[in-house]
Amino acid sequence: MDMRAVVLDGPVAPEELRVRRVAVPEPRSGWVRIKVEAFGLNRSEYHLRAGLATNARFPVIPGIEAAGTVDAAPGGEFAPGQQVVAMMGGMGREFDGGYAEYTVVPASSVIPVKTDLDWATLGALPEMLQTAHGSLYTGLAIEPGQSLLVRGGTSSVGVAAAVLAKERGLTVFSTTRNPQRLDVLRELGVDYPIVDDGNVAQKVREILPDGVNAALELVGTNVLPDTLKAVAIHGTACFTGMLSDAWTIPDFYPMDYLPNGVRLTAYGGESSDLPAEAFQRYVDLVAAGKLPIRIDRVFTMEQIGEAHRIMQDGKAVGKLVVRVLDPAT
Q: Which SUPFAM superfamilies match (predicted)?
């Protein structure tokens, strides 16, 4: 039996991505085969496709997340037909990932879920919520009543982080380089939307003179010094994203780089950082309309090149999702 999948033989331009017919993978004990219904796009997949990833192996089916139903689980960890999501754990890098009709992943990367959400919406959630949740709770240890700056606020993780922080009871500052997107941030519940002109710290401190308790850096090391200047003494900045593709700090000298008393941490965790009960709670809140997750656009698998172009060019506000549908149906 074969299936449709996007296969990378090496770095390519977005427009060169193609759907192929390949064999359906067979699961071994401890692994689960998932019939994929939808998958979200992630920046790391752009890095892989563009040749920027340092741990890439080719050929490979990309995709670090997927949503669907269990097709086979030889180890008995999940029941056939069970609704699940999968993420991380080497998906799309060490072994084939979610850009396919079927994917085989370790059982440890699978999270069961029960929901009436449509597949496109569920497909948008796993990695977005995992990264936002991990950044906020592992990277920043947020608490109700604190203030948070999200640098890169209209990215999918930025949107999720702002929404989860508001749900936790924080005051949220969030940035966008496009003034026309300020209203989008307000609609998501952001208290202080800010246009990022390179001087975010100054704008934050005009509102909150002592600075924020926590800052989530999603843009990159090129703006990290400014983000750090927005953080209060004994506050924490968490480096999670590299939307600018800048991820190293040349000639790092801590005494000069870090403001007095400001902590710098990072987050790059796994699916285990998002417990199943926490994911189910978030999904239920989304279904109830109490967690406003934003999907920018839903594509078919045959539109994967167009989707990657939009992701690469930073044209999306929120999550880009691919719905895996058989074109014959």
A: GroES-like, NAD(P)-binding Rossmann-fold domains
Stated as kind and residue range, the H or E segment containing 110 is strand 110-112
Q: In the chain, which ranges are continuous DSSP H helix?
A: 43-50, 119-124, 126-134, 156-168, 182-187, 200-207, 224-229, 254-257, 276-287, 304-312
- In the chain, CATH 3.90.180.10 covers 2-125+293-323
Instruction: Indicate the helix (H) or strand (E) that contains 235.
Output: strand 231-239
Angle (nearest 5°) at CA 291 between 286 and 294: 85
CATH class of 2-125+293-323: alpha beta
Q: For every one of its 329 residues, what pLDDT tens digit does the chain have, with 9 covering 90 and above?
A: 999 999 999 999 999 999 999 999 999 999 999 999 999 999 999 999 999 887 778 999 999 999 999 999 999 999 999 999 999 999 999 999 999 999 999 999 999 999 999 999 999 999 999 999 999 999 999 999 999 999 999 998 999 999 999 999 999 999 999 999 999 999 999 999 999 999 999 999 999 999 999 999 999 999 999 999 999 999 999 999 888 888 799 999 999 999 999 999 999 877 788 889 999 999 999 999 988 889 999 999 999 999 999 999 989 988 999 999 866 55
Question: Which class would CATH give 129-266?
Answer: alpha beta
Q: Where in the chain is the domain with CATH 3.40.50.720?
A: 129-266
Q: Is the separation of the CB atoms in 102 and 14 below 8 Å?
A: no
Tell me which residue of 64, 51, 44, 14 sits closest to 242, measured CA to CA: 44
Asked if 323 and 299 touch (Cβ cutoff 8 Å), the reply is yes
